[in-house]
TrEMBL record, chain A:
This is DUF6644 domain-containing protein. Residues 31-164 form the DUF6644 domain. Pfam families: DUF6644. It comes from SAR86 cluster bacterium. Keywords: Membrane, Transmembrane, Transmembrane helix. The chain crosses the membrane at residues 28-50, 71-95, 101-120, 141-163.
Automatic annotation (TrEMBL), chain C:
It comes from SAR86 cluster bacterium. The keyword Transmembrane helix applies. InterPro entries: DUF6644. The keyword Transmembrane applies. The chain crosses the membrane at residues 12-32, 44-65, 110-127, 133-153, 173-192. This is DUF6644 domain-containing protein. Residues 41-195 form the DUF6644 domain. Keywords: Membrane, Transmembrane, Transmembrane helix.
């Protein structure tokens, strides 16, 4: 049911003229994709600086809360650009992307990243005054930083794997397990 | 010129920065120009929403 | 007199030597004469080396290592942006720039090592293609320049004395050049995939 809805929505997007235009344009599509990948440096670069500070590998002499608070804004700006360009990339190739196992796992991981970020900030704000100047943050915070590094690394890996067609509905048999995960529709004609 | 301020490392840093900025600007402007030329050649106008590699 | 000048201006002399070498290489077309002899190495890298074999045979390994390349690039970018935007007075203004410079360099060094190692792997899998791409060579040149600039020019200056004793405009163009060169390394790297 949900897969049919996703498929119909993707077909609706795919039928719009701008989707085709963006998909087929050499410069525009590649620029959008380049911006998506290069803002990774701004978003994840800042986020990883915060995580590495908590683990004691970067900026050990700067109060942890200072780094976490001050690098939050550039990180969010980077994230906003990544989010917008990500939506545009999805819009350019909606059917294939919505039925990609990697894309689906990536979306779940992004939710995990958001939950982790929320818990991380809550725990940090609760106790930061007692360890702000320590080189390493307490265990609970460090676990949060490790999860953040791990989840986001998996997001990047999944994002990279979306480009591969191993599990595409078009190229797999209907009895293949990946078809279930990809949400392939029996007898679908567009890919 | 203040010798203590404009020492070896400062001069090297300032001049290499200027060289790098100049060279990179030259490269990127050149890239931009050749892209516009390619689009002009393909369509007679600059259209970013088109593929100049497919005629 | 000359030896005195050379010993006092060692970095400037080194820089002048590098610039002169680049001019001579271009003038005598050394690049064009070396270029064909590099092809066998690139062919070996793709078809005979074990990293080339691994990259061609296992797409998933190749993609994962490429993602590792991106992640190390993100850390490089993070350290460069934090350090240089601080020098430009944009970020973390209340923290001394000396502290920021020292606190990020270790991370920069290690992630650069990872980026180069994973980058060699990525290049090996498509070595016969990248050999013919100008954008690949531009990236290599930018990487070499960026690394040389970081380790021989920027760090020695920033570590030599408190930053308020350094000419503020020198600091600004130093930071701008650093951001621009590492942006070029990343952007040309991305474009390799499209060409």
């Amino acid at each position: 049911m949900i897969n049919e809805l996703i498929y119909d929505f993707a077909i609706w997007l795919d039928d719009s003229a701008w989707s085709t235009l963006l998909h087929e344009s050499y410069y525009m599509y590649n620029w959008v994709e380049s911006i998506h990948v290069l803002t990774l440096v701004v978003c994840l670069g800042m986020l990883f600086m915060i995580d590495l500070r908590m683990l004691g590998y970067a900026l050990p002499n700067v109060p942890a809360s200072n780094i976490a608070r001050r690098l939050n804004m550039p990180m969010l700006i980077g994230f906003a650009i990544m989010f917008i360009t990500g939506i545009l990339l999805f819009y350019a190739v909606p059917v294939r992307t919505s039925q990609s196992v990697w894309f689906r796992v990536k979306m779940i991981l992004l939710v995990a990243c958001a939950v982790n970020a929320y818990l991380f900030h809550r725990r940090m704000n609760e106790s930061v005054s007692s360890w702000d100047h320590d080189t390493k943050a307490p265990d609970r915070i460090r676990f949060g930083a490790i999860f953040s590094l791990g989840f986001w690394s998996l997001v990047v890996i999944c994002g990279r794997l979306v480009a591969y067609d191993w599990f595409d509905c078009e190229y797999t048999d209907s009895d293949n397990f990946s078809q279930l995960l990809s949400g392939c529709i029996a007898g679908q004609e567009r890919f | 010129m203040n010798d203590s301020k404009w020492d070896d490392r400062t001069i090297a840093a300032a001049s290499s920065s200027v060289i790098i900025l100049g060279a990179l600007l030259y490269y990127w402007v050149g890239e931009g120009q050749s892209m516009l030329e390619l689009l002009e050649l393909a369509y007679g106008s600059v259209k970013f929403f088109n593929n100049p590699l497919v005629f | 007199m000359l030896s005195n000048l050379l010993s006092n201006y060692r970095t400037v002399a080194g820089l002048a030597f590098v610039v002169l070498a680049v001019v001579l290489v271009e003038f005598f077309e050394v690049r064009a004469s070396i270029y064909p002899s590099l092809l066998p190495f690139f062919e070996w890298l793709k078809y005979s080396s074990w990293i080339g074999y691994l990259g061609i045979t296992y797409g998933s390994v190749y993609a994962t290592i490429q993602a590792g390349h991106l992640i190390s690039m993100a850390i490089i970018g993070g350290t460069v942006l934090v350090t240089d935007l601080r020098l430009l007075g944009v970020l973390l203004k209340d923290i001394p720039s000396e502290t920021i410079t020292k606190g990020t360099h270790q991370c920069f060094k290690y992630s650069l090592m990872v980026a180069i190692a994973t980058g060699i792997f990525c290049a090996a899998g498509v070595a016969d293609k990248v050999y013919y791409m100008p954008v690949f060579w531009i990236k290599m040149l930018a990487l070499l320049t960026g690394s040389g600039f970081m380790f021989f020019i920027k760090q020695p200056l920033l570590n030599s004395r408190p930053h308020h004793e350094i000419d503020p405009w020198t600091l600004r163009i130093l930071a701008a050049a650093s951001i621009f060169i590492w942006f070029t390394v990343a952007a040309t790297g991305r474009w390799i995939g499209f060409s």
